[in-house]
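>> received
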Amino acid sequence: MLPFSIFNRAERKIFMSETNEYIRDWIESHDISEVECLIPDLTGNARGKIVPASKYCKEYGMRIPEVIFTQTVTGEWTEGSDVVNPVEIDMFGVPDKSTIRKLPWIEEPTAQIIHDCNYRSGEPVDLAPRSLLKHVLSLYQAEGLVPIIAPELEFYLTKPNPDPDLPLEQPMGRSGRRYNARQAYSIDSVNQFDPVLDDVYDFCEVLELDVDTLIHESGPAQMEINFLHGEVLQLADQVFMFKRAVREAAMRHDICATFMAKPLAGEPGSSMHIHQSMLSLDDKRNVFDDHGKPSDIFLQFIAGQQTYLPPAMAFLAPNVNSYRRFARFESAPINTEWGYDNRTVGLRVPFSDSANMRVENRLAGADANPYLAFAASLACGYLGIKQGLSPRDPLEKSAYDLQQNLPRTLEEALQSLSDCKPLVDLLGERFIAVYTDVKQLEYETFFQVISSWEREHLLSNV
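>> returned
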């Protein structure tokens, strides 16, 4: 869908009339009684309102305060920011008709619709993650290019944990025993959780999510779902919907699903690998390929990611826990080296035919907001193309033998982001200011917590 702000007043009226008619007909044909009006926030969680369908079909959208984008993952609000209007002005939620779905986990016929955020002028709210992703995609469109991605998303199934001071435990499998074995690619291990995963696939079918392969990953009860490749905004919406669906499916079976990057000590973390390719806007040709060889654009894209992904890590690893995942020899990259069919590097190029030439960004965690992770990854590649950068030579050995060039903490990542002028200019000073304010407050809140490790080892020994 084209950005709402490009229309003049008359065109905007026609566009919204067609959208509203489609939504009204869809709601009536599915006998919907309530509508979940959703806006993805900075953390990737759903904010919004639940509205009776009859009321929604009169208003087609909602009003919601702009300051929702200054709320942290703990529910706190940033204070003193001089870039957000202090009177808490309203945004206008504009429905994207392509995202309307019937929710399969609610008995009362309920629809969900993802909304874009606009000001009264019709201009998009630059603090909204969906707006930021659209902005980055528009930069590629201006160059005659269309990015294509395919995410791979990992998550753990765990026993419910009502006490956050206690470590997570593995859930019971169908065998009736606690499932605590590492069994990468094991079919029998997947089958232990067939009732949950059957519901996941059923939910995905109703939600029209293009999920493909399911595998058991390296951790106990750790799963990975691969999505089919497609256009970036659609895949971001699908990952956003998928996380809700998995949590709902797990709860039906008294199990929890978590996309936390490192939920279990001593076990592998959960990632969101992003396969990226690039089509010509004119002929839909994969421009990463040059007659069976990597094209100049392909190499420039990789060089941009090598250069700018380290300062963009606050989007790919957005939480204090995210940085526990990046450990040498633990199936997570520690640098931005690249190589062919090399799973130790941050940027892996799988062997493929010319039409499927792509690069896999292995840095993003499962806890990342998909809109921001995709926007940041593509922004880095865009800078490489525009600046004509050249990558380092592809690595043929283990990248774990080389130095780590990624931030080690959220605080370090935020400082690196703020200091990177090309990224700040591309993504917008106002957005970066608000995002870093929110994440800095989260880090400071975390830093006030005294851990059990500190009590155990420092209380009587220092």
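>> The chain has 13 helices and 17 strands.
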